[in-house]
Amino acid sequence: MACSGGRERGAYHHGDLAAALVRATLEIVDEVGVRGFSVAEAARRTRVSPGAPYRHFADRDALLAAAALEVSRRLRAIHLEAMTTASSPHERLAAVAGSYVRAAAVHRGGFDLLFAPGLRTHHLELRDSTREFIDLLLPSAFEVVPPEQGAKAAVGLLEALSAVARGYVALLLDGVFGEPGAVAAEVAVRATRAARALVDGYGLPDTTPS
Amino acid sequence: MACSGGRERGAYHHGDLAAALVRATLEIVDEVGVRGFSVAEAARRTRVSPGAPYRHFADRDALLAAAALEVSRRLRAIHLEAMTTASSPHERLAAVAGSYVRAAAVHRGGFDLLFAPGLRTHHLELRDSTREFIDLLLPSAFEVVPPEQGAKAAVGLLEALSAVARGYVALLLDGVFGEPGAVAAEVAVRATRAARALVDGYGLPDTTPS
DNA sequence: AGACGAATGTGAGAGGCTCATACATCCAAT
DNA sequence: ATTGGATGTATGAGCCTCTCACATTCGTCT
């Protein structure tokens, strides 16, 4: 944990290769996407032999999954922030959808990773990240869904919200709306609106006195 | 274009290698996912030398994209069928979302392909497939959205519907709800409900300043 | 019919990647 | 100081993508 710079004179050992590899992986994926990523390149950028990464990660997918997990951690922080800026539970739910889309435009590579097929399935922690997302919002959902509909409806709403958010991000990153960076803000607005419509559809006709 | 079977005696030329490769690609992706796919394997299954595919497809991604395009064609047929079985425009919109999710569980490999990052971006026809999907449903959307909200609201609704459908499929295939094959039917129901909520939410008087 | 050019497939190979295995080096606990 | 375990290196097998020169066949033009 000591040397942060790189290759001191006797720096046979790296210090914290695992973390450095994850950082390199995020960089590479940002530049060339998951498909363009290679363990060898990550090793090269970390100034380490091609075999070294395999001391820390079982295989290519394990490194990618670790990087994806890091992304999901950062994303969680973003969600938390988005939640605090909203006032009503109504708005809080909608705002998270919007912030999700905005985050996608900025951290494209990260989402490439989060959505990469097969990674979530193999890595339990990663698969649970969606559930965490839901848990984070559960209190707000309970305030929005009429109590007589029960907890199941609240969870259903949150699943639907995850789905819209994720769906909009997918469409955005696919370029369906145009160059992602250029249209992200507007798409975020539309995603927010969709989320609001969803909340309305699941909840009572009017719960918001103006 | 004549021989369809395989290796007659003098079958130096294949007949329709391009189509056969696309078929093989779909098979392989169904079995081992996009990540496990290799052009070499597709060539092997088509009983052709490893270099042959490159006469028809510029590179690996081009073959994958062609396969994805084939999937999107089949999917379009599924959508059309789902639309005819629904009676009201309301139900029609919701039903397509459900059929999308059900289709995903059956043709997992196909969706792996459709959602593979980078393919859509590179292949124009593929990127337009989402827009086609929207065009397909536009008439129904116009019947559902109050006219005073204009065409933009109708398109917005359809985008939102695409997003939920796609989002639910993504969550399903990630295994968030459990083993995809087992939970698909139930998830389809929930997706349908979300779609209905969305349709209701957009049908309400506009609450958002644009 | 016969010949010729275009299309399509083959064979061999360069270069890169993943991952395994044996070996070198360094840290920490005794 | 020694020694055992963790970490990095060196090497290499096996697979993959994609290229290039060559072989084979098809369609077409005379």
From TrEMBL, chains A, B:
GO terms for molecular function: DNA-binding transcription factor activity; transcription cis-regulatory region binding. Pfam families: TetR_N. Keywords: DNA-binding. The keyword Chaperone does not apply. SUPFAM superfamilies: Homeodomain-like, Tetracyclin repressor-like, C-terminal domain. The keyword DNA-binding applies. Residues 15-75 form the HTH tetR-type domain. Residues 38-57 bind DNA. PANTHER family: HTH-TYPE TRANSCRIPTIONAL REGULATOR RUTR, TETR-FAMILY REGULATORY PROTEIN. This is TetR family transcriptional regulator. It comes from Streptomyces sparsogenes DSM 40356.
